[in-house]
Amino acid sequence: MNLSPILRIAAFATAVIALTSGGALAQKKYDAGASDSEIKIGNIMPYSGAASAFGVIGKTEEAYFKKINAEGGINGRKISFISYDDAYSPPKAVEQIHKLVEDDEVLLVFNPLGTPSNSAIQKYLNAKEIPQLFVASGASKWNAPSSFPWTMGWQPSYQGEGRIYAKYLLKEKPDAKIGVLFQNDDFGKDYLKGLKDALGEKADAMIVAEESYETSEPSVDTHIVKLKASGADVFFSVTTPKFAAQAIKKLAEIDWHPMHLLVSISASVGSVIQPAGYENSQGILSAAYDKDAADPQWNNDPGMKKFTEFLQQYYPDGNKLDSSTIYGYGAAQTLVKVLQMCGDDLTRANVMKQAASLRDFQPDTLLPGIRINTTADDFAPIQQLRMMRFKGQNWELFGDIMSGEMER
Fold first, then answer.
1. Does 294 reside within a domain?
2. How many Cβ atoms are within 10 Å of 141's Cβ, its own excluded?
3. What is the extent of the structural domain holding 368?
4. Looking at the structure, do residues 80 and 225 belong to the same domain, yes or no?
5. Which CATH number do you get for residue 184?
6. Does one domain contain both 129 and 187?
7. Are 265 and 240 in contact (CB under 8 A)?
8. Which segments within 169-245 are labelled E, that is strand?
9. How many CA atoms lie within 13 A of 21 on its CB side?
10. Is 408 part of any domain?
């Protein structure tokens, strides 16, 4: 059939209109907090209180999103990062999350910090079907997609890390007498459970003392004295930065020199080791999944060069020796990856779908060989670590990459 020129132009115009209205425009999907120009991200951090050392994470993330916005945003949309102080207090966390969801109408809650705070908000966010994404806590409960499909962790689980220390002790010091100092909440109990699970039937004999502390306590000194009196020759410090630094100082003060295992969340040179004193910290053991900016081996690393350039331009007050700065950068980079994967479908359901579809993603700051992988059935993005020992003024990695999974 031959159409006249006028009819051909009309047909073409009709097709263009149909494609435009039914195609590209229809592909854009938004929930509250997202639009053609903006993506609202909510966050809570302990900018004050016992865990205020972690507030650096939120400040780093804010600076990273400024960098992304300066470079054009996410698929043309600018990130609006709204971060409130919860003072590491569950009631305050609930109050701030309600404000973020009901007043600010954020698309998602990103990297909220702390096991107690996240435990307090988990049911609310899941009932509202709002992503509680890349939780800044290693509690095992964040990897339960069948029960809490809107909650996902980011860092290795505390139980998994506890199992890694147990595996190390069984190999290197099978006759160890372990004294444990742990925070009396899910954070502390998760680490202790991982240690005991991997020690297995030897746990009762090897763990000779357990001391728990409350975050409201001014210091842990009395607990340290009790652990020394138990005869322990291994000290497992399951502490947040403030108390980790106190413990290191107290061990030196009372001239107690056990094998010292320190959990990774408090292995920061800037916020723990420096305040406690380099001379008091020699030989401490920990585990890592990200690079240590104090380690000269990363001076020419492409990823760490990007990290250093970011700090210089967007967060000049940031301390590159503080592992919380490294953490915030890596977590923010992971969220940006997920939002890029979402394209023009910025619904909460698609955010979780893409977050559960990460394949071998490696932020600039992760150790070589460690990748982020998620599936619809596995909400634990990072599951590997390497042991490290503090020597001089930085951590030295040793041994192979280890998994915190239980051996079948």
1. no
2. 18
3. 38-156+299-377
4. no
5. 3.40.50.2300
6. no
7. yes
8. 178-183, 207-213, 234-238
9. 6
10. no
* Tens digit of each residue's pLDDT (9 = 90 or more) over 254-309: 999 999 999 999 999 989 999 999 999 999 999 999 998 888 889 999 999 999 99
**CA atoms of 197 and 250, how far apart (whole Å):** 29
One domain for residues 339 and 221: no
Same domain for 152 and 123:
yes
Residues 6+ apart with CB under 8 A from 91: 120
In this predicted model, what pLDDT tens digit does every residue of 329-349 receive, in sequence order?
999 999 999 999 999 999 999
Q: Are residues 396 and 341 in the same domain?
A: no
Check: CB of residue 87 under 8 Å from CB of residue 109.
Answer: no
- Structural domain total, the chain: 3
Residues in the chain where the model's pLDDT stays below 50:
16-25, 408
∠ CA 45-98-148 to the nearest 5 degrees?
80
What are the two backbone dihedrals, phi and then psi, of residue 138, each rounded to the nearest 5 degrees?
-100, 20
Say if strands 384-391 and 345-346 run parallel, antiparallel, or are unpaired. unpaired
Angle at CA of residue 98, ends 95 and 100, nearest 5°: 110
Instruction: Identify which of 90, 84, 89, 134 has the alpha carbon closest to the alpha carbon of residue 104.
Output: 84
pTM assigned to the model: 0.83
